[in-house]
TrEMBL record:
This is Ribosome-binding factor A. Belongs to the RbfA family. One of its GO terms (biological process) is maturation of SSU-rRNA. InterPro entries: KH_dom-like_a/b, RbfA, RbfA_dom_sf, Ribosome-bd_factorA_CS. It comes from Sedimenticola thiotaurini. Its main location: cytoplasm. It is found in: Cytoplasm. GO terms for cellular component: cytosol. GO terms for molecular function: ribosomal small subunit binding.
């Protein structure tokens, strides 16, 4: 009988939880804004983890936040090693997750298309 979850999935979920807490307490939220760890993908040998994040607010743009996370990665990896009992703690690679912004743009385009199809329709009388 196959297991419901692979070990890599369980490790990725634990890394996601721990990193979310570490990022919250480690990084300066005035500069980076509120960072959310959306997902973590871990390779089978646990040597690398791709960390998908989004952010809201802050002084820095997307590239600035990505740069700040990449600079903090060795320290975050060390702290992660203190919290998670693993033989190998993966090297962290941070990637900005654009799926939320893409979804918002698509939703706005759909709303705009629906309104242009029915210009005389009142929004409140759907």
């Amino acid at each position: 009988m196959a297991r419901e979850f692979k070990r890599t999935d369980r490790v990725a979920a634990q890394i996601q939880r721990e990193l979310a807490e570490l990022v919250r307490v480690t990084l300066d939220s005035r500069k980076t804004g509120m960072i959310t760890i959306q997902a973590v993908d871990v390779v089978r040998d646990f040597s690398h983890a791709k960390v998908y994040f989004t952010f809201l607010g802050g002084e820095l743009d997307q590239h600035g936040v990505t740069r700040a996370l990449k600079q903090a990665a060795p320290g975050l990896r060390h702290e992660l090693g203190q919290r998670i009992r693993m033989r190998t703690v993966p090297e962290l690679h941070f990637v900005h997750d654009e799926s939320i912004e893409r979804g918002s743009r698509l939703s706005a385009l759909i709303e705009q298309a629906v309104k242009s199809d029915h210009p005389d329709r009142d929004e409140h009388n759907d």
